[in-house]
Amino acid sequence: MSSKTIGVACRNVIKEFGDGEAKIRVLHGINIEVPTSELSLLVGPSGCGKTTLISIIAGLLNPTSGDVVLFNTPQSQLPGRKLVQFRAKNVGFVFQQYNLLPALTATENVAIPLLIQGVPRPQALEQARHVLNYVELGSRANQLPSQLSGGQQQRVAIARALVHQPRLLVCDEPTAALDAKSGQTVMELIREVAVQAGRVVIVVTHDHRVFDYGDRIIEMSDGRVVNVTSKN
């Protein structure tokens, strides 16, 4: 992997929940490196620790021990508010259930990350419309989520995750709620996003239909990484 630029590195990441006799170890010393400009799939059975690991990588959970290095910055050096600020600037999220706000138009939903960062509303909405055009939903910019199909809602969610140009894009089961055709459209879009220089894209999935889109498949079982397969 020496020729690859490493965007994310997990260093002996352990995660435990609970205390005393009720303590449960969910992650058992994870060590992985994820390059930029590739689409990496994190796969494995339910309950194996995928969501916990991706939450730690994205800065939503703290590891019990170990560290995650994001673009040469250890999370341990970003305490409290600094980590929140780093995440807001550098991380985009795509969820299985879209998580769109029903009372907002597609454009307004996409603009949310920019508004959170203090970008003036007119500028945020303009950038949101630009990204909606990129995901081929410009004609739906003023529609509410209830007026969109599942596949269209997921593309809005991807546009929202990309609007602030994050270096890390995390997708949690992005095709699980979609039919085969919509899932294919979404994965083609995510794949296009993934190959951009300097960006890390990690997709958590159970969906074997999308495995062919991955450049790297990271397999987990019982809180451990058991295999990493690369096409390159």
Structural key phrases:
232 residues; alpha/beta; Rossmann fold; 4-stranded antiparallel beta sheet; 28% strand
Describe it:
This protein is an alpha/beta fold and about 230 residues long. It has a single domain (about 5-100, about 145-230), classed as 3-Layer(aba) Sandwich (Rossmann fold). The chain has six helices and ten strands; from the N terminus they run βββαββαβαααβαβββ. A six-stranded mixed beta sheet has the order 6-7-8-3-9-10. The chain has a four-stranded antiparallel beta sheet with strand order 2-1-4-5, covered by helices on one side. A hairpin with a 6-residue loop joins β1 and β2 (about 25-35). The radius of gyration is 18 Å and the shape is globular. The N and C termini lie close together (about 10 Å).
Q: What is this structure, in a nutshell?
A:
By secondary structure, this protein is an alpha/beta fold. It has one domain (6-101, 146-230): P-loop containing nucleotide triphosphate hydrolases (Rossmann fold, 3-Layer(aba) Sandwich). The chain has helices spanning 50-57, 81-90, 106-116, 121-134, 150-162, 180-194; strands at 6-17, 24-35, 38-43, 65-70, 73-74, 91-94, 168-172, 200-204, 216-221, 224-230.
The CATH superfamily turns out to be P-loop containing nucleotide triphosphate hydrolases
Structural class, from secondary structure content? alpha/beta
Q: What does the main sheet amount to? A: 6 strands, mixed
Side by side, the strands of the main sheet go 6-7-8-3-9-10
Strand content: 25-35%
Helix percent reads: 25-40%
**Number of separate strands:** 10
Note the gap between the termini.
9 Å
Shape: globular
Any idea of the CATH topology?
Answer: Rossmann fold
* Name of the CATH architecture: 3-Layer(aba) Sandwich
What integer value in Å does the Rg equal? 18 Å
Return the domain count: 1
Please identify the top-level CATH class. Alpha Beta
How many separate helices?
A: 6
Give the uncertain stretches in residue-range form. Answer: none
Order of helices and strands: EEEHEEHEHHHEHEEE
